[in-house]
Amino acid sequence: MSAQNQKKIQSGFGAKSTAAEVVSGIDLTGRHAIVTGGYSGIGLETVRALAGAGASVTVPARRVDVAERALADIAGDISVSSMDLGDLKSVRAFADEYVSSGRPLDILINNAGIMACPETRVGPGWESQFGVNHLGHMALTLGLLPALKKSGSARLVALASTAHIMSDVHWDDPHFTAHDYDKWQAYGQAKSANALFALGADRKWDEYGITAFSVHPGGIFTPLQRHLTDEEMAVLGWKNPDGTIPERIKAMFKTPEQGAATATWAATSPLLEGRGGEYCEDCDIADLVTADSQRWEHAREWITDEAKAERLWKMSEAMLAEG
User: How many domains does the chain have?
Assistant: First the structure.
């Protein structure tokens, strides 16, 4: 992707569109999808929309019993399997099981994530936000590659965030072993990594008909904020000091149904045929940042950089080989 392609295409949808609206009229019968984190928040609504359009949806879950209860009232062909993104053995076992089933994989939405958590280590000492949000999903996607190839026209969607604006990848110390841990820098670099991974995957796998996008779902109150106190959210401006939500935030933030829309759009929209690698927001391709951009919108230059995408890919492959 050149930066010139990072601009709106006037999709006809917007910030308040819902997942059900963007998939309306699209028939996914016979298509197979996987949605990580598909049993809470925007993931749950993404599953609801895809299944409602006829897709067969698999939801890998760390807590299978919780996932099954959460998904029980959604009509459609939905199954739950065990997987923990922080445990590569678990990730690879899930991917191997799916590939062995012989099913193609038409849609992979890497939706699950953790945000601004206390310093925690996973795998061989990886910082947890980079490890779970990026490396776990990269391992999953690589493991599922045979099924994605089998589709012939697969869509891969990586959940990034406007938080990519906070930080490029900390290239010399991504796991915060040589400098002090900062939970927001760690989250920001993980979200930049998600976008760069989608860009790299799109370039590497184009010959197999695999198209990849990254998306910012929008501001939504979901379990993703579980590591933040009301006091922290008040400092961020998301809540008032008494814990109530300011009217400005109510107007700006999305419902989970609206928050699921951009990923669902990126996974299914016919408008995106012939494209790939772009970062999306509000159910459209995001514009590239300009001097007039608000601090929470648009794509920063580093997530459109193919050289950085390749650098991340090589660095991450080396980490996964040791994990």
Answer: 1
Could you tell me how many helices (H) and strands (E) the chain has, helices first? 13, 10
- pLDDT reported for residue 158: 98
Range of the domain at 288: 3-219+254-316
Name the residue with tokens 């053995």.
89
Active site residues: 187
Specify the pLDDT at position 1. Answer: 42
Is 248 a member of any domain?
Answer: no
pLDDT grade for 2, boundaries at 50, 70 and 90: very low
Q: How many residues does the chain have?
A: 323
Is residue 164, in this structure, part of any structural domain at all?
yes
**Mean pLDDT of the region 248-272:** 88
What CATH number did the domain enclosing 99 receive? Answer: 3.40.50.720
Please, which residues bridge with residue 185 across strands?
none
User: Nearest 5°: phi and psi at 169?
Assistant: -60, 135
The whole-number average pLDDT for the span 81-94 is 98
On the question of pLDDT at 235 being above 70, the answer is no
CA distances (Å), origin 212, targets 170, 215, 219: 23, 10, 22
Nearest to 140 by CA among 89, 208, 92, 107: 92
Estimate the crossing angle of helix 306-322 against helix 183-204, to 10 degrees. 100
Q: What is the distance between the alpha carbons of residues 277 and 305, in angstroms, rounded to a whole number? A: 10
* DSSP-based three-state secondary structure for 254: strand
67, part of any domain: yes
Separation CA 140–CA 147 (nearest Å): 12
Q: Is residue 280 part of a domain?
A: yes
pLDDT, tens digit (0-9, with 9 covering 90-100), for 280-318: 999 999 999 999 998 888 999 999 999 999 999 999 999
Angle between helices 41-52 and 261-268 (to 10 degrees): 40
Beta bridge partners of 212: 156
